[in-house]
Each structure stands twice: as structure tokens, then as C-alpha cells.
Design a protein that fits this description.
The protein is α/β, with parallel strands linked by helices and about 325 residues long. It folds into two domains: about 160 residues, Rossmann fold; about 140 residues, Rossmann fold, CATH 3.40.50.2000. Helices cover about 40% and strands about 15% of the residues. The strands form two sheets. The protein has a seven-stranded mixed sheet with strand order 2-3-1-4-5-6-7, with helices on both faces. The protein has a five-stranded parallel sheet with strand order 9-8-10-11-12, with helices on both faces. α3 runs parallel beside α5 and α8 crosses α12. The radius of gyration is 20 Å and the shape is elongated.
Length: about 325
Amino acid sequence: MKILYVVIAAKDTPLVIRNENEVAHVCPRQLKEGVEKLGHQADFFAIPGTVSRWNYLWAALKFFWMSLRGDLDSYDLIHAHYGFHGVVARCQFRKPVVLSLMGSDVYRKWERQIARVLVKLVDAVIVPGRQMRALVDNYPAEVIPYGTDLDLFKPMDQAAMREKHNLPKDKKLVLFPYNPTRVYHKRPDVIEAAVKQIPEAEMTVVYGVHSSVIAEYMNACDVLAMASSYEGSPGTIREALACNLPIVSVDVADVLDHITDVEGCYVCDREPNDMAAKLRLAFADNRRLPHGRDKVLGLGLVECAQRTIEVYKRVLAKRGKQVS
């Protein structure tokens, strides 16, 4: 099977079909890795929408032209990740389209209206968390989170990781692995205010680096904190569990599905006092999670890619095409 992924570009890049992983956002990149491990082929059509919204218009026109020219003929189907990319992918009707909704494309009201129309125009819809289905009128979407690289995100020696990244040895480190300027979405202000209430704690911010570095920071820190206003299905939570890193989080997206009943993880309100109280509980435990990694062993790259491949096969079967 050969799939074309229509995705957001990780950098400013020409509107052409490419195979290089670095052109794409991390989530579809991980899916592509899992799909290729299963023996299938995949390429990217990456759209630098964050550089300019006009790039979506140029991408739609380019995609329509590529379809007419036959540039898409070698692909079995198109898989678009995120609502605007689904619009681009649907600018052709010769190939079936699978749409993955990511989070903001249903949580932002004006984008949700696009998604509600778009789900009726594609061949299948995937959401990373079950709570997102309600936001698109309970459309019968498949719930498949993006896989976690369990070879990359794994327990490591905490002292060694702190020394490698010059992190303080005498502080309780609270990890925030996001861009802190995304205040409305990620709510770093809540976490920062909570950490200030705990003299021995320090907030550690890291973002825009390779996933291997994030994994090392997860092993260096004492707890991961999340206070986001909305999420699709935050891979950070599964990555932290894979590293046996304790988690303090608000009830957002599918976080509770992953951390409920995990000893050493705590749910808090989206306000500093309660988050500080739960951070103190996590610090008092003074250890890594005893069974965190066990919660995500079935959510590796290959396992989640296999579930996605099954969606592809059903879509192609409806069109009378059988693939192995």
C-alpha cells in the first residue's frame, strides 16, 4: 500500500511531494514510521500554513492540478492530518481521503464548522481521543491515538540526565515541554504560579528540540505538569508514562483514560492552589512511577499504525480494492 500524507510543515518548504521525515510535524511523522515498519510506503505533501494562511489556497490549487496531471495516481489513498489539510486533500476525488482531526480543528468554534462539513465529504475519519467525537456531532470516527516511540521514550538514569543537561540536583523539577508563549492553549501561567508556591520546586521548560532530548528531560525531571485549555490527545502524557515520569494534569482530552489508577499520577483543577497541592503529593512520593510504562505498551508506533492501516483497508475495500 502507498499512502500520501497531507500535513502541516515543520518548516517553510516548497509545495511538492517529498519523502523526508523532517518536513512534517512530529505526529504524522511517527505514524509514517510505524506504517513503513509494517511494509507500506508513504510520502508527505507538507503545507507551511503557519508561515502564511495563503499557503492553504496555493496548496489546494496545486493539489487539484497534481490530480489532473496524474501525480497522485501511484497512491492508494490520501490521509490528511488536521481540518485545513482535509480541505486540500478533498480538492480531488480520484483517490479516497482519510481525515485525522487533531484538536484545535474541532475545539476552535469556527474551525469546528469546517470539520462538521468535511467529515461528510471524506471516506473515513480518525480522532485521537473519544471526547472529540462529540464535537463533530458524534460522527462515527475511529479513535486511534498517535503512537509512542517506546524505543526512544524509556526509563533512563535521572542523575545522568540532569548532569547531561546541566539541571540543578537540589531542586524538584516540574517539566513543561511546550512553547510558553502559547498561554491561552497550554496555560503555563497556571503551572508557573503553582510552582512558585513550592520553594524546593523549579519549572523546567523545553521545546523545539528533537524528541530524543524531550525523552532525556522527562527522565531528568520529577513530574510532568499539564494545564492545557484543550487538547486532542496529548502524546506528551503517553511519552511521560513510557518514561515512568509522574504526572499532574487537569482533566483535558483523554488524559484521565491514561493516568486514572496509575499510582503516582494526580488530577488537579486548572488553578494554581490545587495544582500546587497535587505537585506536593507527587514530590512526597519521591520516586518514578512503578507501572507507568505498562499503561502504554500497547500504544507503540507499530501498534497504532496497524490500527490505522485497518482503517485504510476498509476504505479501499468499499471502493472494491483489496490490499495486503
